[in-house]
């Protein structure tokens, strides 16, 4: 987000914080993956998140890395164990017309969504692997470069650390993905 902000407001902040505003990547896992995916899919003409204090409209990063992300928040598309949490988040059931589409990055994908790497374990019992498959497929259909790494026998929340085989494999995938970016 800082990248896009600094691209619009000048290089003083980028210089101050010592980063290249044209080379930012949003990364997140699970609910944090949802936030990173939202950042990557909110169009600059969307009022979601707009405030008078935040004058910059285009806050998309140049790429996104999403670990087992929550990209589809429609209760009907989720495991039964997650449905109460989603409904509690919105304070309404899907039948009550809660804004599930507005809050689902999957429903916001367009051809301006940045290049994305998804990493998901095939034993995830919190966020369906199918969500990452669908997300990647919709990115592909919109002409957006997307990669999906499926880790065998890996449950949800595997990415918090750097020592397990799954963590090391995901870090190698991220390094390869980032080296392949053309910014």
Short description:
The protein has 183 residues and is of the alpha/beta class.
Radius of gyration: 17 Å
Low-pLDDT sequence parts: 1-10
> What is the count of helical runs?
7
Mean pLDDT: 88
Amount of beta strand: 5-15%
**Order of neighbouring strands in the sheet with most strands:** 1-2-3-4
Largest sheet: 4 strands, parallel
Kindly report how far apart the N and C termini lie: 16 Å
Organism: Paenibacillus hodogayensis
GO molecular function: hydrolase activity
Keywords: Hydrolase
Protein name: Alpha/beta hydrolase
Keywords:
183 residues, alpha/beta, Rossmann fold, four-stranded parallel beta sheet, 36% helix, disordered N terminus, AB_hydrolase_fold, BD-FAE-like_dom, GDXG_lipolytic_enzyme, hydrolase activity, Alpha/beta hydrolase
Can you describe this structure?
This protein has helices at residues 2-9, 12-17, 31-41, 83-90, 105-108, 129-141, 165-179; strands at residues 25-29, 63-67, 115-121, 146-151. It is an alpha/beta fold. The protein has a single domain (22-179), classed as Alpha/Beta hydrolase fold, catalytic domain (Rossmann fold, 3-Layer(aba) Sandwich). Strands 1-2-3-4 form a 4-stranded parallel beta sheet, with helices on both faces. The chain starts with a helix and ends with a helix. Keywords: Hydrolase. GO terms for molecular function: hydrolase activity. This is Alpha/beta hydrolase.
